[in-house]
Amino acid sequence: MTPDLPTLSGPIPVLPTMFGDDKLALREQARLCERIVSAGLTTLVTGGLEGEGATLTQDELIAATTIAAEAGARVGASVCLPGTEAACEAARTVASAGASFLVVSPPPYNRPTLEGVYAHLARIGEAARRPIVLRDDPARTRVLLSDEFVARLCRSGVVSAIVLPPGDMRASRRIDVLSHGDVQSVAGSDFDAILQQLSLIHISQ
Length: 205
What we know:
By secondary structure, the protein is α/β, with parallel strands linked by helices.
């Protein structure tokens, strides 16, 4: 059974993956995580949001996630890959390394149907047994997600939260659409508008 997504609030830094001499700089990565957590930011995202995760090896992804978790952070790991099987494998990997939730976009570049997006997300969640935060990124994925489709994802339990790009003018409209019916909403600032069953998070990298 997939655990519920804890309440997310405040700034959520997306960590860079630090390298030196062509390998992951473990000490510097740990120092960065510890410094951010000591400043009071206890939720971090590893693996980047702009395709970085696809360039990391499995060992590098495990190390980056493990370091963040060992620093005392609640870790969300980015899993934004074009292939469902590869994404499932990456999701299982980061879950075993300490990720408590996953940040997942529709498969980039493939332009799947909405049913394809639904199946992609559902399989990743089942594979990792972790809640999914959906990153709506139409500029990169070339997939436009309707408000009705996002509501379906959330109400079926496939997705627990959604990330919209900062300044996206659809944000207030989408909150309004999803606040009707069974989904209760509590809107916060530009950086966090948390819904009881659907959390809308603005993450800037």
